[in-house]
Write a structure and sequence with these properties.
Largest sheet: 8 strands, mixed
Distance between the termini: 40 Å
Keywords: FAD, Flavoprotein, Oxidoreductase
Structural class: alpha/beta
CATH architecture: 3-Layer(bba) Sandwich
Number of helices: 12
Radius of gyration: 23 Å
CATH topology: FAD/NAD(P)-binding domain
CATH class: Alpha Beta
Family: Belongs to the GMC oxidoreductase family.
Number of domains: 1
CATH superfamily: FAD/NAD(P)-binding domain
Strand content: 15-25%
Protein name: GMC family oxidoreductase
Organism: Ureibacillus sinduriensis BLB-1 = JCM 15800
Helix content: 10-25%
Shape: globular
Oligomer: single chain
GO molecular function, one term: flavin adenine dinucleotide binding
């Protein structure tokens, strides 16, 4: 029998970026907040001198255990979905801080076009430009309305960068300057300028200099060690929830963090949540945590699954187009992967940082004319010097044998004579791209797994071919003697790794019939449930999602405060 705990003001389901930001902001305002994290606790001390590529990059030490909980996947509803048994296309973080610990730190603001994408597309190109099965919709909030929350996230995390000439207007400059420019970045920058583009340094949550944020949290500068992606930062230089927002929440004395607490159900009476039921995964004990507000703050896929599992919101039905939970799943179109081989030049690509790089944005969003193109939106072209690691990064030409003396010879020759970059493209929502509960497979607790139905569309292929022509042009201008470029995409597969940028499923908007959340990330039909995070995105942009996730989290924190102050109303 479950033990019922004392009621709290707010309960958080997951303590990563979204949960951490809510915890900090709400406890500062005096609310009692309980954070339920199903994984372990952790801090920077866990990562001191642990540059272990095998453990973290290849054996996924910071990721969810797929033998206990995974997803099932299919390309279309005529296929049987099968469980993802090993990591490939994307990585699901776990433990305190979640994916905010193992991320690279690439911190973007979505474009003004993104938030009003349907309206702006129809105004410029007409309604016929949008395919009939593309579920494109505005977000219910504009860039200008969200900009103060973007700025709040930048200031908290100490984002390093310089002005994006094609981005939205900023109320303040980046709190820290751009990261160092390497010879590879300089070569890319010069090539782009020769082609008439306006390159700029990528915005980064890897600090370019020591920084103290408005909450008084001081962090050291990045050491360019190259162990960011799939790793925790031993210096605290990479902004993550455990070194930024969670210490603030803990210092108030009003934050109760409980690790190893796996939430399996949101409890509700009628259209109002009463709390959550969770299992202590160490003891097997079951608890009920009553709360005035329930904030669903875990990873995208887990947010959707928990709502469906709890019978909250109307599940999306692709056949009728009705329902909202599971709707508008979108991924990321990582396209135009381009590698250049240089015979006469050598580069040190083993030093780096997760968000060290140069970009051009001329072909992102609606920054260019799509009148004669068979796709919408676009991609950010970026050369990132993340720091190649010796096991996983070994570029050789396509005709090289995969083993033996020749393979070793070519590996040694090109380990410092090859450069790669690609285009990170937007992912548009389609009618038959969605998330629901699998009718067959269950997790270790006997609950249904989440089922993903998704495939690349002609939209993605057309964007890939267009972007490939641009990346190849840049690489040629950089002086590569041989260029290998991926120009088309095959069917989507759950392997190999592509991007962890899953979005959608609990989307925001201005119409309860087509969206699950209002602009404060509050559910339309369950007024005391808030669901911030990338699950709220109606589509995915040509950028990494974390900056926009952060902005929406600050917006949600404000919404919860208004809700609690006004006795259930946001106005």
């Amino acid at each position: 029998m479950a033990t019922t705990l004392p009621k709290t003001d707010v309960v958080l389901i997951g303590v990563g970026w979204t949960g951490g930001i809510l915890a900090a902001e709400l406890t500062k305002k005096g609310y009692q907040v309980v954070g339920l994290e199903r994984g372990r606790g952790r801090s920077t001390s866990d990562f001191i001198m642990v540059h272990d590529e095998l453990r973290y990059a290849l054996r996924y030490d910071l990721m969810q255990d797929l033998s206990k909980e995974t997803i099932t996947f299919r390309n279309n509803d005529k296929m049987r979905a099968l469980p993802m048994r090993q990591y490939g296309s994307f990585l699901l973080g776990t433990d305190l801080g979640g994916s905010g610990v193992h991320w690279n730190g690439q911190t973007w603001r979505f474009l003004p076009y993104d938030f009003q994408i349907r309206t702006m597309t129809e105004e410029r190109y007409g309604k016929d430009k949008i395919p009939e099965d593309m579920m494109l919709q505005d977000w219910g909030i504009t860039y200008d309305e969200l900009e103060p929350y973007f700025d709040q996230f930048d200031q908290m995390a100490g984002i390093s960068g310089e002005e994006n000439p094609h981005g939205g207007k900023r109320s303040n400059p980046y709190p820290t300057g751009p990261m160092k420019h390497t010879p590879v970045m300089t070569l890319f920058k010069e090539a782009c300028e020769n082609l008439g583009y306006k390159p700029f340094t990528q915005p980064s949550a890897n600090l370019s200099e020591s920084y103290t944020n408005p909450d008084g949290i001081a962090r050291a500068a990045c050491q360019y060690c190259g162990f960011c992606e799939r790793f925790g930062c031993e210096y605290g230089a990479k902004a993550d929830p455990t070194v930024t927002v969670l210490p603030v929440a803990e210092s108030t004395g009003k934050f109760d963090l409980r690790t190893h607490a796996n939430v399996v159900e949101i409890l509700h009476e009628g259209n109002r949540a009463t709390g959550v039921r969770f299992i202590d995964v160490q003891s097997g004990e079951e608890f009920i945590q009553p709360a005035e507000v329930v904030a669903v703050t875990s990873y995208v896929l887990n947010n959707v699954r928990l709502l469906l599992q709890s019978g909250i919101g109307k599940p999306y039905d692709p056949k009728t187009g009705t329902g909202v939970i599971g709707k508008n799943y979108a991924y990321q179109n990582m396209c135009a992967s381009t590698t250049g081989f240089f015979e006469e030049r050598e580069f040190n690509v083993y030093a780096g940082a997760g968000s060290l790089g140069m970009c051009v944005d001329e072909f992102n969003g609606d920054n260019f004319d799509h009148s004669n193109l068979n796709f919408l939106h676009g991609a950010n072209i970026f050369l990132g010097q993340l720091g190649k690691r010796p096991i996983q990064n070994n570029a050789v030409k396509p005709d090289t044998p995969s083993w033996g003396a020749k393979f070793k010879e070519e590996s040694i020759k090109y380990h410092n004579r090859s450069i790669s970059f690609n285009a990170q493209g937007a992912s548009m929502p389609f009618r038959y791209h969605y998330l629901d509960l699998d009718p067959t497979y269950k997790d270790a607790f006997g609950n249904p797994l989440l089922r993903m139905t998704y495939d690349f569309k002609e939209q993605d292929n057309e964007m890939s071919k267009f972007m490939a022509s641009k990346t190849e042009e840049i690489m040629k201008e950089m002086g590569a003697s041989e260029i290998i470029v991926m120009k088309e995409k095959g069917p989507y597969n759950i392997v190999p790794y592509q991007s962890t940028h899953n979005t959608g499923g609990v989307i925001m908007g201005d119409d309860p019939s087509t969206s699950a959340l209002n602009s404060y990330l509050q559910m339309w039909d369950f007024e005391n449930i808030f669901v911030p995070g990338a699950s709220a995105f109606p589509h995915n942009s040509g950028y990494n999602p974390t900056g926009t996730v952060g902005a929406l989290s600050y917006r949600a924190a404000e919404g919860i405060d208004l809700y609690l102050k006004n006795g259930g109303s946001l106005v």
